[in-house]
Amino acid sequence: MTAPHTLTVENLELGYGSRTVVEDFDLDIPSGMITCIVGANACGKSTLLRSMSRLLAPRGGHVLLDGKDVHRLPAKKLARTLGLLPQSPIAPEGIVVADLVGRGRHPHQRVLSRWSRADDAAVADALAATNTTELAERAVDELSGGQRQRVWIAMALAQQTDVLLLDEPTTFLDVSHQVEVLDLLTDLNRDRGTTIVMVLHDLNLAARYADYLVAIADGRLYAAGDPSEVLTSDTVAAVFGLDSRVIDDPVSGKPLVLPVGRHHVTV
Fold this sequence. Notes:
Layout: E1 7-16, E2 19-29, E3 34-39, H1 45-52, E4 60-65, E5 68-69, H2 75-81, E6 82-85, H3 97-102, H4 117-129, H5 145-158, E7 163-167, H6 175-192, E8 195-199, H7 203-209, E9 212-217, E10 220-225, H8 227-230, H9 233-240, E11 244-248, E12 255-259
Parallel strand pairs: 3-8, 3-9, 6-7, 7-8
Antiparallel strand pairs: 1-2, 1-4, 4-5, 9-10, 11-12
GO molecular function, one term: ATP binding
Protein name: ABC transporter ATP-binding protein
Membrane topology: Peripheral membrane protein
C-alpha cells in the first residue's frame, strides 16, 4: 500500500481570458479512495482537473498536495507523486506503443541514470493490465480510438504515482472496455492504495465506482460525499436539468439514475 497523500482545493478560481469557469471552489479529496467528478458539459470539471495537476494556473486560491502548492513544486518531484491522463492526449508522430508507455517512467529517471529492470517491469505490468501487450510494437497513430485510450491509461499506470487524475478515461471505449478500465482502476486503488480522481460522463458508472462523488454546477461545488447521499433526483435536476428517478442498482446497490423523457409516463 502507498503512503497517504492529501490533495486539497482552497477557494479556487479558474478561467480562460475574461471568462471565469470555476470560482469559490473548496474540496478535500479523500486519500486512498476513488473520487468521481460529474456535472453537465462546460461546468468546469476538466478545468478543475487541469488545475489540480498544475496545467492551469489559478486566478485565485490554491491546490495543495501534502500542504504544498502544486504550482510551486518542481515538476519532476510532483510527477513522481501525481499523474494525469488528460482528455484527448496527443502522441508524438510515429511513436510505438512500448515507447509511449515507457514515457511514464521519465519522472523516475535521474541525471545519467540508465533504464532499469524496474522500468521494464513497470511497463510490462502496465501493458498487461490494460490488455495492450500485443500492441507494444505497433505505431500509436495506427490504433483504433479504444486501443489508443487503453495505451494512454497504460502510460499513466507505468508512472506508478500515488495519486492519479484521469479526465474521461472511458472515452472512445465500448461498454465492455469501459467496465474493464474502471475495474482496473479499482484494482489499482484497492491493491496499492492509489488515490484516484476521475471525471466521468456516465452518471451511473460514476455512482457505481466512486467511493466519493463530487457534483459540479456552473463552476461551483454543488454536492460532495457518498454517492448514495449525493446522487438524488433533486441533484440530477439541479446539476443536469434532467427529470429522473433514482433507484438502487440491483448489481452494486449504488444509486441508479433513470432519466424520464417527455414521451414517458411516470408512475
